[in-house]
Structures are given as C-alpha cells and as structure tokens.
Amino acid sequence: MTSSPSTATAAAFPPTEPLSVTTVRPPWKHTFIALSIPNFRIWTAGNFVAMTAGWMQRIAQDWLVLELTGSATAVGITVAMQFAPMLFFGLLGGVFVDRYSKRMLMMITQSIFAVLSLGLAALTLSGAVQAWHVFAIAFATGMVTVIDNPARQVIVSELVGHRHLRNAISVNSSVFQLGGMIGPAIAGVLLLAVGAGWAFAINGVACILVVGMLTLLRTSQMTRLAPAPRTKGQLRQGLGYAVSKPTIVYPVILVAVFAVFGLTMPVLLASYADEVFNVGAGGYGLFNSMVAVGALTGALLSTRRASIRLRTIVFGVFITGVLQAAAGLMPSVGFFAAILVTVGMSALLFQTASNSLVQLSSNVGIRGRVMSLYVLVLLGGQAIGGPLMGWIVETFGAHIGMIVSGAMPAFAAAIVGIVLARRGQLTLEVEVHRALPHVHIVPRSGARSRSRAQRIMRDQTLSVRPKRR
Questions:
Q1: Same domain, 310 and 287
Q2: Which end of the chain is more exposed for a tag (fewer CB within 10 A), N or C?
Q3: pLDDT tens digits for range 70-96
C-alpha cells in the first residue's frame, strides 16, 4: 500500500506540540519583552530604518507612475510588477530559506535592493526616467523579495526562540506600521519639495545600513534552525503540510482574498487623492499615514493579546472588510481619513494574529516553506489585485472600487465562518484539577462526532495551559 502525500508529510514533520500560554494578558512591563534580547534589538533598529525608507520608495514610486502616465491602471501595473514574482516563485523562495542561513540571504537581498533603488534614483534625478523603467525595477525588486520576505519572517524565530515569538511578531508589525506612518509623511514632503528621486536615494542608503546592522548580529546567541536537506518534492511537501492543518490553510485563504481586494490601497488612495478630493501628493501621503496610524495602534494592541484563535482571524477579516467598504461611502476628506484609521487598526490586528497562528502551527523544519506560502498569497494577491482594482476604479469610479475592496473579504470571511461552524459542532468544557483550570474542547454528542471534532480541533486550537504561580 502506498501512502498519500499528506500522510508522508505528517510522518516527516510530526504535529507541533501543544504550546503553553497564559490565560491572562501580560503585565505592561512585558509589552515589548522581545526587545530584551540584544539580537532582536539590533534587528528591530535595522528593520525600522528599512521599513521607513521602503514605504517612502513605495509611495514615491506609485505617485511617479501616476505623474508619468495619468493612469490608475498604470499604478496597478506597478503594484503587479513588484508582487508578481512572489506569485510565481514564492514557494521556491521558501525552499531556499529552509536550506540556507537567513542572515546571509538577507545580506545579499538588501545589497541588491540598494543597487536597484540607487539606480532608480539616478534615472529620476537625471530626468531620464520613463514608466517602463519603474515597471522593470519594480519587477526586479519583486524577484529579490521572493527570498527576502520569507527570510525576514523566519529569522525572527531564530533571534527570539518560541517563548517570545508571538510578542516579537507583534513588535515587528509595530515597527512596520511605524515606518508606514513616518515613511509616507516624509515621502509626501519630498514629493512636493524635491520630487521622487531623493526618496529612492534614501531607500538605497537605508538598505546599505541594514546590511551593516545584520553583520552586528551575534550568531552565537541565535537559535539556528537545521538546514533542510536537498530532496525531491520539497515544494509539494510544504503545500501538503499547509493544507493538512486548518490553522494554516484557513488564515492563508483569508489573507489571499484580503490581499487581492483589501491590500490594494495604493491604487485606491491615489485615485481618491487625485480625482475625488483633489488633494494631490500631500493628501496621498496623508491618507497612507492615516492607515499607518491605525495599523500602529493595532500592532501595539496585538502585543497585549492573551491568546490567538482561528475564529478571531475570521471575525477580524469580516470587520476589516466592512470598515473598508464603509470608507467608500464617506462624503468628505475628514470622515474618509478618520475611517482609514479604523481600517488600518482592524487590518493589522487580524494580520498579526494570522501570522502568529501560522508560524506557531508550523514545524520548524518546514516553516520557511509554510511562510513562503503565506507571503506568496499576501504579496502575490496584490499582484493580481493591483491591475484588477485599477480597472474597477477607472471603469466604475473610486467609490465603487473602495466598496468592492472591503465587501469581497467580508464575504469570504462569512463563508469561512459558516464552513467552520458546520464542521465544528463543538462546546467548551472546563475541568478543575488541584485548583488549576484545564480548558479543552469536546463535541456536543456522539462518538463519531467526538472523533471528528477532536481531529479538527487538534489543529484548529492552541492548548491552553495556565502557568503555575
């Protein structure tokens, strides 16, 4: 008898052990406890520089294309060119990340980013830049991202270990969103004062600084993951593992839908700034900063999260979609900017939760491939969504585009919620042993239902075991 691919994958990578977590929120002094680790402090400083400069480049790049072409579809093409490589080669990037040193890979990718950014800066500042130059450099950047992004995700677990991984992911998200708040604001000023070229130059210098900071990491203090051996079928193995675990596959599905429709903000906000409210480049930077303000708030709140559940992610996608659709109905700049804050906060809360749940549900030996799948749908979805939303905006208007961008993720979350509710038929029981509560989930009735529900919930929940005081 031959075993199925999912059976072989399960044998090679046993299910993750139940994780001990606290049932109460951490004390305020532990809100950023991952930063107590020296390597993670160095990494966070470099990441902040990279994220701020990267946001500057992205905003300047999109606005430059809009100035050169006057087309929202062209902005969507720019987004597609940057994220399409992840769509086609993302899983292959995960194989490389599992095989080689994450730190070494990132030093290479950041060096290439520096060359690309400085090249775009030279073209722009010399006045020779054309739209196809931006498309080509965006595509090359996307090719490098195929390796850089999963390496960036997995290296965090090497820096902090499992104990503070969830907190580290939230801190990382906070840094990303802080960069997303500061970067667009600086980009807006630069676009008005000196043009897009200097934003590209600053990003190139920032990438060089990140390479320098990576050299400062103390490798002796890192929890190095054993490299995956070269074997056939590693891509198929990674996919089989992800599909077999509900705590991986359902967040990936929801993130994919949200990426296609909900994460196309550059296309939507550029159109709102240029055509709906006529506030120009400064307004475009302001709108992106409002999203980032909300996202930063959500990232900080996520560090206080006591537990992560699959239903939290489903509910978060639904609420985010509803809020984003509501933004399309806002009548003025003030109301529009205000609701963007709530969209950013809600989106970041569910994204940090999904990232944490996927990583914590993955065996360390296959985590690079699992996270490459996650990054593939996150970035590859935007490659599909950029041109799609650009076409919707040009055909039906920015208001309809914004409504569609929120309604589709909300609909997907509702469908997934119904599927999980029909599969589960579960209830919660609490047993008390030696005055310590033990929480577990059992089916409502029937031996057959019990076996099926236990099989589902083995992968859908993290065991809750209060720490002894």
A1: yes
A2: N
A3: 887 788 788 778 877 877 787 787 777
